[in-house]
């Protein structure tokens, strides 16, 4: 079956612009996670959804970052007033239930010029 | 707070040699521990995980890891390296059974010499 998909695969934007990154989880998976992976680092947790609600958003670095999952499936990570330091690969993962194996997507590489 | 330290950002072994990738963790509660592999241009893939019970955990592709509470370690091993094992390996910890976000180490790039 289809895995986790993320679009776009690459996004180049200018400092100060707004971007949206999309994640399509595996069908039927109730838990969805966002991570950020900077060059030479491991993935860093951002936010976790159980269904439609954000169960833990403690990893969001500041209020420029926001994520939604309105119907409990697709999720969008939104970044306002992008900064060069936001450049990273943004990873999405989903699991059937919280606590079960997380399946990762290929990521979206965001470059802020 | 939980954390993970992976010793060695790059490890190089000869094909057929033992692979040993080191991981030490810090956790205030009994941890759940994971090893993930990332091949070039692919998503992270779970190799193995420790939850409770047997401390020696076997995973895919011949890898295994041993949870040693006294050493706060979860090192990854494979008896005989194959060229296809070349990849980035990440150790991760969770204090909630993996129900919340994982805390990852910085990763170890495994290089296989022919």
Structural class of chain B comes to: mainly beta
Oligomer: heterodimer
Overall mean pLDDT score of chain A? 94
Total number of β-strand segments of chain A? 11
Distance between the termini of chain B: 41 Å
Uncertain spans of chain B? none
The secondary structure category of chain A is mainly beta
Number of helices of chain A: 0
* Largest interchain contact: A-B, 30 and 24 residues
| End-to-end separation of chain A | 37 Å
Tally the beta strands of chain B: 12
Question: What's this, in brief?
Answer:
The complex is a heterodimer of chains A (113) and B (114). Chain A is mainly β and 113 residues long.
Task: Please name the defining characteristics of this protein.
heterodimer; A: 113 residues; 4-stranded antiparallel beta sheet; globular; B: 114 residues; mainly beta
Explained architecture:
The complex is a heterodimer of chains A (113) and B (114). Chain A has 113 residues and is an all-beta fold. Chain A is 0% helix and 49% strand. Chain A has no helices and 11 strands. Chain A has strands at residues 5-7, 10-13, 19-24, 31-37, 44-50, 53-56, 65-68, 75-79, 88-95, 103-104, 108-112. In chain A, strands 2, 4, 5, 6, 9, 10 and 11 form a 7-stranded mixed β-sheet that branches. Chain A has a 4-stranded antiparallel β-sheet with strand order 1-3-8-7, with no helix packed on it. In chain A, a hairpin with a 6-residue loop joins strand 7 and strand 8 (75-79). Chain A starts with a strand and ends with a strand. The mean pLDDT of chain A is 94. Chain B is an all-beta fold and 114 residues long. Chain B is built from no helices and 12 strands. Chain B has strands at 3-5, 10-14, 19-21, 24-26, 32-38, 45-50, 56-58, 64-68, 73-78, 87-94, 103-104, 108-113. In chain B, the strands form 3 sheets. In chain B, strands 2, 5, 6, 10, 11 and 12 form a 6-stranded mixed β-sheet that branches. Chain B has a 4-stranded antiparallel β-sheet with strand order 3-9-8-7, with no helix packed on it. A two-stranded antiparallel sheet of chain B has the order 1-4. In chain B, strand 7 (56-58) and strand 8 (64-68) form a beta hairpin. The model of chain B has no long low-confidence stretch (mean pLDDT 93). Chain A binds chain B through residues 3-4, 31, 33, 35, 40-48, 55-56, 59, 91, 93, 95, 98-107, and chain B through 4, 9, 36, 41-46, 49, 90, 92, 96-107.
